[in-house]
Amino acid sequence: MTQERDESATDQAGDDALSEAFWAVARRLRERSQETLAPWDITPAHLRALRTLRRLSDHLQIAPRSTTEVVDALEARNLVRRRADPGDRRATLVEVTEHGTDVLAAIRDTSGTEAGRVFGRLSPPDRAELARILALLRDQGDR
Hints:
The protein is mainly alpha-helical. The chain contains 5 helices and 2 strands; from the N terminus they run αααββαα. The chain has a two-stranded antiparallel sheet with strand order 1-2. The mean pLDDT is 78.
């Protein structure tokens, strides 16, 4: 009984340490991401939207209020522009501007470097294992 209690306490301590390490890495990535995006005055949400809009620029119809607010912020920075949908006068299309494409390319070049600095300490097998583990943790929420 005592041995089981000791093993349980050891497992809990290990889990706590792993959790702390995980959150420390997440904080570091968030901080680096904010530093990387700062020159363009873009938030991570804006970057995700801009990337999505780039992939879907000719087919995206904007409706939800939160999306509209993000598009407003991107449009104010000349990163995207709205235009009427020629096939549906009720719809508005959003497309990435040339400036938006340039900013995406600059961020991709810079953020790739930042991610390399954080994860570059890991060997390729360690990176693969971390990716596998993080995918398991991320996908647990889908169950």
